[in-house]
Amino acid sequence: MLTMTLLNNSLRHLLISSCLLLSSCMGVPDNVKVIESFDANQYLGTWYEIARLDHSFERGLDNVTATYSLRDDGGIKVINRGFNSKTKEWEQAVGKAYFIDPVNADKTNTGKLKVSFFGPFYGAYNIIELDKPYYNYVMICGPDKSYFWILSRTPQLSYPIKQHLIAQAKELGFETDKLIYVNQSPEAVNYEAGRHVTQ
To answer: Distance from the CA of 137 to the CA of which of 6, 90, 149, 159 falls in 20 to 30 A?
Structure first.
């Protein structure tokens, strides 16, 4: 009986710990706010990674892009792609994302999503800055300040805009002195700026 009680307590502790861990993966960092109004349709298409904080799943990759499209279940299909200059091969990860908060009255969403590349395990995808109404650049973070990205609709982002975003991120407490600026090779350019904009 004692063994069964200890086992049940251990399982209960494991479940509670797992729930806390998963909920922490869905959070928003301290003093950071997600955008309140976000049009998913304008966000679809390809984005070029301008800068990121280092993490294992993108380490060593250049020409990184993220491409978003609608899924049949109402979610968003995510394709992350980058070129590994050591292996001379493209690497790709396919995932899915879903909005966490209820839809706004004007049919927009808040910039708080959960994204998964590994089965049932989700992490936070928080949109904390977005160029409106044109959707030409965006800042994203994870559940804490160790995950941070700047994306653009074009392979290069103008210096004043980039510096403004970096200054904003630094003020929020992100370690901008550790940012990796992604090499987007000119020969890889194949885009039409502005086509994502709806009138």
So the answer is: 90
